[in-house]
Amino acid sequence: MGCGSGALTIAAAKRNPKASMVGCDIWSGAYRTFFSKKRCEENAKAEGARNVRFEEGNAIRLPFEDESFDAVTSNYVYHNISGHDKKKLRGGETTP
User: Fold this and answer.
1) What DSSP line would sit under 50-74, residue for residue?
2) pTM greater than 0.85
């Protein structure tokens, strides 16, 4: 979540070549100037990461079925969400 330019998703893909990685971001607002799905795909191609794909999605309404992933990382996402219970969105975790 919050893959921005795709850097962390691409790094994870390169470190785990047998896994499939999915980067997801809303790519809107002020961030749209610097980040996009196309930029992520171009960065992945430049890095030779073939086990990665990128999807547009909102952290509140993700375009994936529940339990679609073995692990999820988040980078600068939850501070942008207002009007929702952030603990509930994180699955009730209490650690940052």
Assistant:
1) -SEEEEE--SSS-SS-TT--S----
2) no
Residue by residue, DSSP assigns 5-60 as TSHHHHHHHHH-TTS-EEEEE---GGGGGT--HHHHHHHHHHHT--SEEEEE--SS
Query: CA-based diameter of the chain, in Å?
Result: 39
Q: Residue 75's closest CA among 19, 11, 29?
A: 11
User: What is the domain partition of the chain in residue ranges?
Assistant: 7-89
The separation between CA 53 and the C-alpha centre of its own chain, rounded to angstroms, equals 10
pLDDT tens string 14-65: 999 999 999 999 988 877 888 999 999 999 999 999 999 999 988 777 889 8
